Amino acid sequence: MTTMSTDMLAAIRADASSSVERDPRWNRILRRDRTADGLFWYSVITTGIYCRPSCPSRRPRAENACIHGTVDEARATGARPCRRCNPDGALAENSRNALVTRACRMIEASETPPTLDVLAQEAGLSPTYFQRVFRRITGLSPRQYGEACRAERLRGVLRSAATVTEAIYAAGYNSSSRFYEKADSLLGMKPGALRGGAPAERLRFAIGQCSLGAILVASGERGIVAILMGDDPDRLARDLQDRFPNAELVGADPDYEDHVAQVVGLVETPAVGLGLPLDIRGTAFQQRVWNALRAIPAGQTATYTDIARAIGHPESVRAVANACGANALAVAIPCHRVVRRDGTLSGYRWGVARKKALLEREKDA
Predict the structure, then answer these.
(1) Domain over 202-272 is classified CATH 2.40.10.10
(2) Annotated binding site
(3) Of the candidates 286, 260, 205, which has an alpha carbon nearest to the alpha carbon of residue 238?
(4) What fold characterizes domain 6-81?
(5) What are phi and psi of 209, to 5 degrees?
(6) Any idea where the domains of the chain sit in the sequence?
(7) Model-level pTM?
(8) CATH number listed for the domain at residues 284-364
(9) Where's the active site on this chain (predicted)?
(10) Annotated binding site for Zn(2+)
């Protein structure tokens, strides 16, 4: 058996020390930076404990410290939690939420979205780790969030700007040609059409009957934009017109009846699913909520608090409820699967009786 020399051990410890000291998080540990709590942890080899960055305990030597991106990584070393700083406490999640909130405000206030490196430096984290934290909490990368913010600004200025090009630059885009490459996916339609109130958008629709009453289905070029339910077919048609006031609505299309039949099939037999594409339109926050709703398995329910936690915004329960109420794709985006904390049925845009019936069918499927 070969014994490691003293010189070799010293070299390994020196290399470990150098690696920790090069990590930007180490300086935050040395400063006991409270804003870093919940973003990372460190463990101490010589004491066998792990701590928050702000722990009041004496700082370890760099060669005796390991920095961890999650509390689970710290536990995996076999270390135990520090009794002084309680690194497993609830403050950790709050700190991460606060950091991402600051980054979101920074992105929203910037004409041109800050780069990942700039955002990470502001947070005092490596770009890779910052992006991981940001995506886990928001469901989007910083770049995707920035694009969504610019698209929202563009929607706001398109109608008042003299030209589409002027609006593009006013919204923070520095190249109209690069913008046009992805304009459809960002706005849901051509910018010129949106500027004119979407008069060029053509929506096919049809109204059918299911066991829960009348049902309206409408589609654009990319997929279904609305599934509405109610008792009065005429009222459903007016609702569609209110949602798309300048679109050309085309009804009485025999070829479109199959779409309605498939949606009715989803209502009557939830297990069959829906094989038609959806054109989901909403803000970045709404889309995160709706994606979380689609992740709820048929036959199960979740509370508004569950959804808020799932998207990384536990404090946004009311905003989650508003997003559920804004859903225009009944059943396909299953907001009917959201219930109150005590399990009772909360309000439903298309009537609590329909919500109860849908849940009972899914439970029996």
Answers:
(1) no
(2) 51, 55, 82, 85
(3) 205
(4) DNA Methylphosphotriester Repair Domain (3.40.10)
(5) -125, 140
(6) 6-81, 90-199, 202-272, 284-364
(7) 0.53
(8) 1.10.10.10
(9) 51, 335
(10) 51, 55, 82, 85
Instruction: Give all strands of the β-sheet with 202-210 in edge-to-edge order.
Output: 224-230, 213-219, 202-210, 248-250
- E strand intervals along 211-327: 213-219, 224-230, 248-250, 302-303
- CA dist list (Å): 134 to 90, 194, 290, 312, 345: 18, 30, 19, 9, 33
Whether the CB-CB separation of 274 and 262 falls below 8 Å is answered with yes
pLDDT, one tens digit per residue, over 118-162 is: 998 888 778 888 888 888 777 678 888 887 777 666 665 555 444
Give yes or no: 210 in active site. Answer: no
pLDDT exceeds cutoff 70 at 237? yes
Catalytic: which of 66, 149, 324, 335? 335
Best CA proximity match to 237, nearest among 205, 193, 273 = 205
Q: 149 catalytic, yes or no?
A: no
Which of 51, 66, 149, 324 is labelled catalytic? Answer: 51
